[in-house]
Amino acid sequence: MSSRRDFIKGFFASGTALAAGVASEPACARETKKLAPGAMGLLYDATLCVGCKACVSACKQANDNPPEFSTVDQLWDTPLDTSGHTFNLIKMYRNGTMEVKDQELDGYAFMKTSCMHCGDPSCVSACPVSAMAKDPVTGVVGYDPEKCIGCRYCVAACPFGIPKYQYDSPTGKIGKCELCRHRYKDGRYSACAEVCPTGATLFGKTSELLIEARRRLALKPGQRTKFPRGKLGGPDQSYEAPASKYLQHVYGEKEYGGTQVLKLSAVNFQKVGMPDLPENAAAALSETIQHTLYGNLIMPFAVLGVMAFAAKRNVKDDDAQGEKHED
Amino acid sequence: MRKARNTRIEIMTNPSQASVASHAPAPLGGSLITPTTLICGVLIAIMLAVLAVRFFLGLGAVTNLNDGYPWGIWVVVDVIIGSAFACGGFSVAMLVYIFNRGEYHPLVRPALLASLFGYTLAGAGVIFDLGRWWNFWHIFSPSYWNPNSVMFEVAVCISLYIIVMWIEFSPAFLEQFGKYEVKKKLNKMLYIFVALGTVLPMMHQSSLGTLLVVMGVQINPLWATPLEPLLYLLTAITMGYAVVLFESCVASTGYRRKLETRLLTPMAKVMLGFLVAYLLVRIGDLVVRGALPHAFQASLEALMFWIETACFAAPLLLIGSEANRRNPARLFLAGMLLMLGGALLRLNGFLIGYETGDGFHYFPALPELLVTVGMFSVEVLGYIIITRRFPVLPREATTH
Ligand code: SF4
Ligand code: SF4
Ligand code: SF4
């Protein structure tokens, strides 16, 4: 009887330990990961975007994706959102009379939707079979369909709603922007940045893109300045134009600990569809819990030991009883 | 002679009871063709037809899954809720073998059987839902592993548990096929599987809750807490006992057997203990995180939160007193409410409280629902066949 009470006590003690381990900052708490020094990404400046969607079309071509239709005549590729077959989209914000560009009231604005290449990606943390993986050098978050089991946990996990599954196929894959990593070997880079006529989408090292973003935020509205196009640090394709009235916020600098794709806008980021994210990545919390409970399987084996000890005694009791009956 | 002697070696029976032999499990017998089994058969056939379409044309052909709701009822109901409903075996085995409450022994086999079916089907359900199911074996191949992934932990752990449960349950088959020597050998090892059968569900039932954590801000604060694993574990245990109450009532009505209130009444008390622990953690967590104001907004989420909470709170009133715990109707109702509450906790976290951006909606399509119904039918049919043909339910003088 007393040993039973001990077990009950032990059980609740381990429950409390579990609660305490999860609730407090445990010893194996994992910090949100920082960007790699060689991290590559994009800088999207909504104030430069003219909504031509050249990048949408180039992205389709670069990734061999079929057109998707949303109009009856089915003449042009007209996806309404990113999908398993559309990795990049320019969305439009509209308000009231839509008179002035980059104005919240009675204005309109554009926003690019594609993978942010998070420094501490939820999709990579979520994937059970390492099909989503972050390149250790460039930090590009790539996808390997040969590994993927199609559980779609990455789809559920990504705070930007980026990975998407191809529901229309019995052998559907996950579709997402991989920063055109397949084009690097030919000396090419992100197709969307390559074709962008205004430099609104600019390819480069994230650290350099951040410097460029900060430079723009420091400009006075209307002040004329040079805007690079294509690839930052590549052949000079820059042009001169007046600076806009930016919000003083480089989106992606701090969100979830930093993303490799950065964004500038004149209209509130939530209004143009970018979520308000804390500085600590959800992946860090999730992995902290996971490793507190299962790190090196210490906790499971400890509990297993207690259980096996108890079970051995109690199952053996049954056994002995059986033998006794036999006599 | 030998057989007669061996049947008395009831290794899985309770030592503290004088009436060991009379309560030993025995097949119920009786016909397998009844209106219930026929309906189950039809529903299973429909499910197979839907699944054929799914495997030839893709998930989109039969489900309403979309880019905003990648997980529908096949994951949330069939796997996440279904496996929690299947915690009866684990909850009762823990009571009997870990806390040494031998008196509950007659409940072990029926509960384990329901769990076995619940989990095996949850495992099968995963395959239907996987978009690239032919790669599923990657979960078992170390070169693909991602130990940081909560999904990885859940997948490995559930798979192992299904195997462990078949071993735990195998004495019933061995008895029926007269393999007493094998059974005796197995019984020497059984404690290891019993222990594993307790630890593995504790691991993955809590991890099923942790699955929500990486979804971060997309989950409504009412269901987004780092204590998720503890909440899911406590409710899984509670639901385990609730399911045993429910099944005992259904089995006693269906097979016209006497209800074992003698066992169910004290077990309900254990269940209430876990329930109180859960409610304390749940409410304490909401208060500490400052999430409670979300429960007072005019929203579907707030409404669902209150329904869920009511399902958990009502059993305290229903069967809070010892006298009420002897009332089969109240036990049945309390069991149902706790099953519903646990199901809602999961449904709310994964679907109702999951907000992935404007413009996405999800409600299961008819074929999608038919698969879930079909899975349930497999469970019922399997339970009937096995209890009628194998020694699972305790022997009773009035057995039909
Ligand atoms: S934006 Fe989404 S898909 Fe892209 S790296 Fe981040 S979590 Fe992964
Ligand atoms: S769907 Fe594929 S890539 Fe996404 S988490 Fe599952 S296995 Fe990984
Ligand atoms: S980097 Fe490539 S895949 Fe990504 S949005 Fe641009 S064009 Fe598309």
The top level CATH class name of the largest domain in chain A: Alpha Beta
Main CATH class of the largest domain in chain B: Mainly Alpha
Mean pLDDT of chain A, rounded to whole units? 88
Instruction: Please bin the fraction of helical residues of chain A.
Output: 25-40%
The small-molecule ligands in this entry are:
iron/sulfur cluster
Structure description:
Helix content of chain A is 31%, strand content 14%. Chain A has 327 residues and is an alpha+beta fold. Chain A folds into two domains: 2-31 and 285-318, no CATH class; 40-279, Alpha-Beta Plaits (2-Layer Sandwich). In chain A, the strands form five sheets. Chain A has a three-stranded mixed beta sheet with strand order 9-1-12. In chain A, strands 2-4-3 form a three-stranded mixed beta sheet, with no helix packed on it. In chain A, a hairpin with an 8-residue loop joins strand 7 (164-165) and strand 8 (174-175). Chain A is globular. In chain B, helix 6 crosses helix 7 (150-176). Chains A and B meet through helix 1, helix 3, helix 4, strand 7 and helix 7 of A and helix 3, helix 5, helix 7, helix 8 and helix 9 of B. Bound molecules: iron/sulfur cluster (3 copies). The site of one iron/sulfur cluster has 16 residues of chain A, from helix 4.
